[in-house]
Amino acid sequence: MTMTIESLPPVAEMMRQTGLEPKKQFGQNFLFDLNLTGRIARSVPDIKNTTVIEVGPGPAGLTRALLLAGAKKVIAIEKDKTTQPILSQIENASGGKLQVVYADALKYKIEMTDGYALCSNLPYNVGTELLVNWLHKIANGENIKSLTLMFQREVAQRIVAKPCSEQYGRLSVLANLITDCKILFDVPNTAFVPRPKVQSAVVQLIPNKQKIERIGDISVLEKLTAKLFGQRRKMIRGILKIDWTKYELNGTERAENIYPEKFLEIASNIDKNLL
Questions:
Q1: Which of 10, 97, 127, 254 shows a CA-CA span of 20 to 30 A to 164?
Q2: Which residues contact 128 (CB under 8 A, 6 or more apart)?
Q3: b/e string for 88-123 if b means 16 or more Cβ within 10 A?
Q4: Torsion of CA 163, 167, 171, 176, to 10 degrees
Q5: 58 CB contacts (<8 Å, ≥6 apart)?
Q6: Is the peptide bond before 194 cis (omega within 30 degrees of 0)?
C-alpha cells in the first residue's frame, strides 16, 4: 500500500522506531504538538501557492504540518544526517512535494527563480544569524515572500522591539526597516522534547517593498547599528565622532533612543570609513 502523509505513524513513534534523539550540538528541540505545528503551518500566507523552505526539520513534525496545510512544495534543509530514516519516509509519502537537502543552512545557497516563504522551528544556536542572513537577501532583492519562524521568546521580543525599550537593538532596526513584523503567538517550553529552559514564540516577518527601496547598502546599516549598539550604554558622541546635529541629534543620546528611520538616514549619509 502506498503511504501518504496522513497514514504515517506519529512523530514520536517514528523516532522510537529509528532511534533518533535530539542532539545538543545542533540546538535541537523537537516539537510534537500537532495543534501547534498545524497552527504554525497555517500561518504561512498563501501557502497553497508557495514553495516553503524549512530549516532544521528534525523528525519532520512541522514538515508534515506544512504538507498537510497544502504547501505547493517544501524544501527541508537538515544538517543532521541521522534524521534521514525518518525524512526519507516523509519524502516518499509526500507525492513529490517534499525535497530534503542535507546541508548547513548557514552555507547553503537557495536557488529559486520564483519567490518562496520560510517557515521553521529554528535551531536555537543559529536562529539569529540565519535571520540576519535572510534580511540581507531581502534587502538585496531576493524574493522571499514571508518568514514565519520560531525563536526563543527573548529573541522574538528583540525582533519586534520598539525604540527606548531594553529589548530594542540591532536586530530590531534591521527587521523593522525591511519588513512588517509581529509576534503571532507564544509557545510553552512543555511543547518540546527535550524541554528547553526558555519559552518560545512564533514571529512573522513580511517584506515591505516600500521600505526595501529605501535601504540602499544594508552592509553600512548593519555596521552602523553594530557599532552603536555594541556600546549601548555610552552616548553616541563617545562612539562616533561626527556632527550629530546634521541628523537633528545632539550626541548625548544612546543607541536605544534612535529610531530605525534615523539609523537609515545616518547610514545613507555617513562616511563608510568611520565604520
A1: 127
A2: 151, 155, 171
A3: ebbbebbeebbebeeeebeeeebeeeeebbbbbbbb
A4: -40
A5: 22, 28, 30, 78, 80, 83, 121
A6: yes
Q: What is the dihedral of CA 211, 216, 219, 225, to 10 degrees?
A: -50
| Short-list 38, 2, 30, 27, CA closest to 14 | 30
